[in-house]
Amino acid sequence: MNLFEKDKTYIASTYNRFPVAITSGKGVLLFAEDGREYIDLTSGIGVTAFGIADEEWQKAVIDQIGKVQHTSNLFYTAPCADLAELLVQKTGMKKVFFSNSGAEANECAIKAARKYAADKYGANRYTVVTMKNSFHGRTLTTLSATGQDHYHELYNPLTPGFASVDPSDAGLKELDALHGKTPVAAVMIECIQGEGGVLPLDPAFVKSLAAWCKQTDALLAVDEVQTGNGRTGKLYAYMNYGIEPDIVSTAKGLAGGLPLGATLLGVKVKDVFGFGDHGSTFGGNPVCCAAALSILRRIDDDLLANVRRKGDFLRAAFEGAKGIERVTGMGLLLGLKTTKPAPEVLSACRDHGVLCLTAKDKVRLIPALTIPDDLLTRAANVIKDVCAE
Ligand SMILES: Cc1ncc(COP(=O)(O)O)c(C=O)c1O
User: Fold this and answer.
1) 121 C-alpha to center of ligand 1: Å?
2) CA nearest 98: which of 68, 77, 67?
3) How many whole angstroms from 122 Cα to the centroid of ligand 1?
4) What number of other Cβ atoms are within 10 A of residue 245's Cβ?
5) What are the strands, taking DSSP E only, across the chain?
6) Are residues 270 and 197 in the same domain?
7) Which residue among 48, 180, 238, 262 is least enclosed by CB atoms within 10 Å?
8) CATH of the domain at 66
């Protein structure tokens, strides 16, 4: 059996993989088994924030593996504490819970919100409201939080206590009415709905929502799994919106390619968990935390300014280009509404050595934050040519 056949035979058929077998990479170049080379605008869906085999990242990982690869959370390790300190210093949040993925970071956010509300208001205040068209993960509870019915259909009964509203003034009214019936423990948003089609929420709506949360003491949780760690040109996307969330969940790019989730707890929830209230065997693993330290330390003002500059460059290249109807997103998380169907654009780009993603009906571009200008230009030209054909 070749690799494609073996994969199809032995791996559960949940993924519709591209017909590319990756063997290695360097920076934003990926090398395939058949000898082809690709410019990667996917970064493992926003994970390899500094590209493949980044030297500083590799050194941090290898150094830590040579010391101790895992201890469990029954012991103290420096990378875990150092990373929590850095996250707190860079955000003004107060404490951190570490897990292994975006879904788990959101699970923790939901548990923190429900515990806060139950401790303060009693067992009836548990509802978590999310936005229509949101995506919060694949575990049963984060799927229940996800505001897209088609994800729910196969897995009933879902976790109770979730509702979703439209991210608009009408949605705010709905939220208020809902709160009158079943008190709301928290509202969870993605500032840019990534899986939902790279759709930024309206800043006025986000501000009103934050004010509503403050007024009602419903916690504001921001899912930064896809938008975090420099992706939008700020450290976290909520920083573009002038709001102060109570809970922030992050994963994907945080450890640059190793599995790590983090839930940042603000002043209201910093002490909501006591011993045994939550946990994870692998969460805060020292190798993943050492990797994340090497990434997060380098997400400074210069790097963020470059992400914004590169995002502006792409936007200028695509806006008004033939076959491109609309450009959405922020920084290096961009969506292109193309005249041709997005899968067709992806396939043609692949033939020309450029890898992109889809998000709903859009072509999604989410390259490493450090993508060099010349490769960005080359990739943008390929996409433009493909869309114009
Ligand atoms: C906004 C958002 N939240 C949560 C998740 C789930 O993350 P993970 O696949 O790491 O569990 C994703 C994944 O795409 C996401 O985009």
Assistant:
1) 30
2) 77
3) 30
4) 26
5) 22-26, 29-32, 37-40, 95-99, 127-131, 162-165, 184-189, 192-193, 199-200, 219-223, 247-250, 261-265, 324-330, 333-338, 354-355, 357-359, 362-365
6) yes
7) 180
8) 3.40.640.10
CA 250 to centroid of ligand 1, rounded, Å? 9
H/E stretch holding 32 reads: strand 29-32
Same domain, 36 and 165: no
Which single residue is written with the structure tokens 């082809």?
36
Domain count, the chain: 2
pLDDT for the residue numbered 352: 98
Domain range for 305 = 3-54+301-388
Nearest CA to ligand 1 atom 7: 102
User: Are residue 47 and residue 181 in the same domain, yes or no?
Assistant: no
Q: Are residues 279 and 312 in the same domain?
A: no
Helices and strands per DSSP (H, E), number in the chain: 12, 17
Q: 161 and 237: one domain?
A: yes
Q: Relative to the CA of 106, which ligand 1 atom is closest?
A: 4
Q: What is the pLDDT of residue 287?
A: 98
Examine the domain organization and report whether 156 and 38 are in the same domain: no
Per-residue pLDDT tens over the stretch 222-233: 999 999 999 999
Give the model's confidence band at 241: pLDDT under 50 very low, under 70 low, under 90 confident, else very high.
Answer: very high
> In this predicted model, what pLDDT tens digit does every residue of 8-39 receive, in sequence order?
999 999 999 999 999 999 999 999 999 999 99
Determine the distance separating the centroid of ligand 1 and the alpha carbon of 137, expressed in angstroms. 5
CB-count exposure of residue 139 (10 Å: 0-12, 13-18, 19+) = middle
Same domain, 8 and 151: no
CA pair distance 205, 38, nearest whole angstrom = 39
- Cα 180 from chain centroid? 32
Instruction: Evaluate whether 345 touches 204 at the Cβ level (below 8 Å).
Output: no
Protein residue closest via CA to atom 9 of ligand 1: 102
Pocket of ligand 1 (CB under 6 A): 101-103, 106, 135-137, 190, 194-195, 223, 225-226, 251
* Structure tokens that stand for 119 in this block: 């401790």
- Cis peptide before 157, with omega less than 30 degrees from 0? yes
Which among 296, 319, 353 is the end of a domain? 296
* Cα–Cα nearest to 276, from 115, 161, 152: 115
Name residue 49's amino acid: A
285/384 same-domain check: no
Q: How far is the CA of 102 from the centre of ligand 1 (A)?
A: 5
Query: Which of 270, 296, 322 is a domain's end point?
Result: 296
